[in-house]
Write a structure and sequence with these properties.
With 52 residues, this protein is mostly helical. It is 33% helix and 0% strand.
Length: 52
């Protein structure tokens, strides 16, 4: 099992890349209704998932 000292160690996207993508994601804090808890974590999970 891997142990990360800092959750940022596992990110694929750089902060600069995420800054460009973040405004395009649905479910921002300013949107009405319920939204995802952490859009970046969701995108990172999609990118990390190995292709079969």
């Amino acid at each position: 099992m891997m142990c990360f000292k800092d959750h940022m160690d596992r990110f694929i996207l750089t902060d600069a890349q995420w800054a460009k993508m973040e405004p395009l994601c649905l479910g921002k804090k300013t949107d009405q209704g319920r939204s995802g808890k952490d859009n970046r974590l969701f995108i990172e999970a999609v990118l990390w998932r190995p292709m079969a």
